[in-house]
Write a structure and sequence with these properties.
Chain lengths: 522, 239
């Protein structure tokens, strides 16, 4: 058998000496592989963007809405339902994240925060929910992982010290989160400074608080003085979905003359100057909506929250926090029943193909259903589109393989005498087969590399045109292509494989040629 | 015990084509070639000389008979064994030189090393082969830059590269002028005399057959054995 080094040298020399043959053979491969990698990279990126909008790796179990005479009679999603779902064979019992209940904040609450010197007020009641802390952080988001937890449940927190909270307005308003002390101020009301004017003589409470009161807690970047127990609490960590950021950028920021925010939270915080810049107040039991008649059992109070990250697992429109906060607040304002009823249950199935069986069981045995998921529909559409595009690419590559076969048949005929000579000086049939197949493989490999380069170039061109010519729209990606390593490897493999396939029959003919006849050819 | 012949043929037959177009090229050819012989295989065009040479060299397979070359039954041996035999023990010299124009003279000479694992100092051996044919100064040139005689000497150097025991030459002087042809024949005679290389030269030229120790003639696919008879059959040729 021919030594592999000699084979490589001979294949390289033979390929390089006939440039016309090389160009004719490699052209189709270049086009085919360029479309192959470009199509795959684009569907990969579109799928990634869609998954940001609609997480598709899990299904959501909800109770059908039923009511009678204005009273909600919907089935309650509680821990008993969770246990039944967990026992299903479609669910992996060893996966702690296989079942994640979500609980909505079901009483009025509104938020107030400062963003770029703008006093923002927004509803939180109905636009907030809670989930287990381990579920929220997206992969690799260590910052959110560290901060998104039930800080109030940790009674051993050394920062839970006594403090004097800012005064509460009596008009039902909620003040913005007070600033951290600076310039030697001790926090709270400064005892060394002249006493501030009495509050009953002040029109603007907000201004009074911001002038005379400063956050007295240790680490004021993260802690605030809670008015219910006069101790320092970690601000409630919340996350928002990329959908919220896009809605803000696409609709809100433009119409209100606000700055555009980058989805990348790190950049976002850096722009704003630290974690406390993302803080806001929540008035529990209060609402900005006139005419609300929700019956709550407790006096409204103010807590502070802080945006700690962006998560695709967050509520699409609203904010998401650790579920323990929601449970405590629902119990506090509405009672035990509200603290044990989930709004939905996220279920990760072992096999997504079993979704129909699972849905049928839910309906038959529990009278529950799966939430209509646009994500599932989009994922299916993307899957089909990807298959069609791959098919188109493969057809192009197949045609190029046929082109390679045609060229190699011509080459083998033209090189009969040369191949016969190789047999005469000691090449076996297998050697000749390997030489011709090696030439085909090299053409495929080089064609594949050039094709991938062309794919990258076209991708960059399309991205440039998109950046300069397409208007901004929600979730507009900075690139339309995600060239994953397996796409590149698959492209090279496909190129080489199809080229070898195209070269096989000519190589077989070359190897079976009788050397005596080949040498006698004029 | 007498030494084994280098080539042993028994009742070798070969035909080409099928049906009405079938042509019987060899009809039961049998003969031995002993080590150190210089044999001229003569005959008119179409008599089967080249076919017989190709069968001996393993470049073609007979329809029937026995072919043993340097102890290898080439009819039954696999393709890889026959290729190995050609690579290590047999050298070919063709009328048309068969040099590869895209390679240098030295690379042409070293071509057999491509198919030989552990070929060692192939370049050194290639240069030595070129030196023997007096072309060591032409190593870097391309075949297109050489005369016909020089090309044939390069082809001979390539045939000698593997230090073969058997040299099979098919009309080696057919494309050369008489002076150059004489030089080539003298080189073969010297190779046979000094190195003991066994040579089988297919030719129809009298000056080639005149230096052979034995002349075997072919007519209609059969041998005419003796030297004198053979020469008569060959019908003479250019001296």
């Amino acid at each position: 058998m021919m030594p592999i080094g000699n084979l490589a040298r001979m294949v390289a020399a033979n390929t390089m000496r006939s440039r016309r043959h090389f160009v004719l053979s490699a052209f189709g491969i270049v086009i085919g592989i360029a479309t192959f990698v470009l199509f795959l990279a684009s569907t990969e990126q579109v799928a990634a963007v869609l998954e940001k909008i609609f997480p598709v790796e899990q299904v959501s179990v909800v109770a059908p809405r039923t009511s009678f005479a204005g009273k909600d009679l919907s089935k309650k999603l509680d821990d008993a339902i969770v246990a039944k779902i967990r026992a299903r064979p479609e669910v992996d019992p060893k996966d702690p994240k296989a079942i994640i209940p979500r609980m909505a904040l079901t009483f009025p609450a509104f938020g107030r925060g400062d963003f770029d010197s703008n006093d923002l007020k927004f509803e939180v009641g109905g636009f907030a929910d809670g989930v287990d802390g381990s579920f929220v952080p997206d992969e690799g988001d260590q910052r959110t992982k560290d901060l998104f937890r039930d800080w109030d449940g940790d009674t051993s927190d050394p920062h839970r010290v006594a403090c004097q909270p800012p005064p509460t307005p009596e008009d039902g308003d909620v003040i913005q989160s007070p600033a951290a002390p600076k310039g030697g101020h001790p926090g709270g009301l400064d005892p060394a400074a002249p006493p501030p004017p009495p509050l009953d003589k002040v029109d603007d409470w907000e201004k009074w608080v911001w002038t005379y009161y400063h956050n007295p807690c240790p680490e004021p970047d993260r802690y605030y003085c809670d008015e219910s127990d006069h101790t320092c609490h970690h601000r409630v960590p919340v996350v928002m979905s990329p959908t919220m950021i896009e809605l803000y950028n696409g609709q809100f920021a433009k119409s209100h003359g606000m700055p555009v925010a980058d989805v990348d939270f790190v950049k976002f915080v850096t722009q704003r100057g630290g974690l406390s810049a993302m803080r806001f107040s929540i008035g529990l039991g209060l609402t900005t909506i006139a005419g609300s008649n929700a019956s709550i059992r407790k006096k409204p109070r103010r807590v502070e929250a802080v945006l700690v990250g962006i998560s695709s697992h967050a509520m699409p429109i609203g904010v998401t926090m650790p579920i323990q906060y929601i449970q405590r607040w629902n119990r506090e304002y509405l009672g035990d029943d509200a603290a044990t009823a989930y709004s939905s249950i996220i279920v990760k199935l072992k096999d997504r193909n079993r979704i129909a069986v699972f849905a049928q069981w839910l309906q038959d045995d529990l009278d529950l259903r799966l939430e209509d998921s646009l994500g599932q529909k989009f994922a299916t559409a993307i899957f089909v589109i990807r298959l069609v595009l791959i098919l188109i690419s493969l057809v192009i590559i197949l045609i190029s393989a046929i082109n390679i076969a045609h060229n190699f048949f011509m080459q083998v005929t033209e090189r009969r005498r040369e191949l016969g000579l190789l047999r005469a000086v000691g090449a076996s049939r297998a050697d000749v087969l390997m030489v011709v197949l090696g030439e085909a493989a090299l053409i495929g490999l080089i064609g594949g590399i050039i094709g991938i380069g062309v794919g990258f170039g076209l991708g960059a061109l399309i991205d440039w045109i998109s950046a300069h010519s397409l208007p901004r729209f929600p979730f507009k990606p900075s690139t339309w292509f995600h060239f994953r390593w397996w796409i590149i490897a698959g492209g090279l493999l496909c190129a080489t494989l199809f080229a070898v396939l195209g070269g096989y029959l000519p190589a077989r003919r070359a190897s079976r040629m009788e050397p005596a006849q080949a040498l006698s050819q004029n | 015990m007498p030494p084994e012949p280098v080539v042993r043929l028994r009742d070798v037959t070969k035909s080409y084509g099928t049906g009405a177009a079938r042509t019987q090229v060899l009809r039961g050819v049998s003969f031995d070639i002993e080590q150190g012989e210089l044999i001229a295989l003569v005959g008119q065009s179409g008599s089967g000389k080249s076919t017989l040479l190709n069968i001996i060299g393993g470049l073609d397979q007979p329809d029937a008979g026995e072919v043993e070359v340097l102890g290898l039954d080439t009819l039954r041996a696999g393709d890889a064994r026959r290729a190995q035999l050609r690579n290590r023990s047999i050298g070919f010299v063709f009328q048309a030189f068969n040099l590869l124009d895209h390679l240098t003279v030295l690379d042409n000479v070293m071509l057999p090393a491509s198919f030989s694992p552990g070929a060692g100092d192939a370049a050194g051996r290639g240069m030595e082969a070129l030196r023997r044919v007096g072309l060591s100064d032409f190593a870097k040139r391309r075949p297109g830059e050489l005369s016909g005689g020089q090309k044939q000497r390069v082809a001979i150097a390539r045939a000698l590269f593997g230090a073969p025991k058997l040299l099979l030459c098919d009309e080696p002087t057919g494309n050369l002028d008489s002076e150059t042809g004489k030089e080539v024949i003298d080189f073969f005679r010297e190779l046979n005399a000094k190195d003991g290389v066994t040579l089988l030269i297919v030719t129809h030229e009298r000056r080639v057959s005149s230096v052979a120790k034995r002349v075997i003639a072919m007519r209609d696919g059969m041998l005419v054995e003796t030297t004198d008879e053979a020469l008569a059959v060959a019908g003479g040729g250019p001296a």
